[in-house]
Amino acid sequence: MTHRARGLAHTAREVLAKRPTLYSLAPPLRELSVPTLLIVGQHDEPCVQVHRFLADTIPGARHVLVPGVGHLTNLEAPDAFNRAVTAFLRESATT
Question: Structural domain tally of the chain?
Answer without folding.
Answer: 1
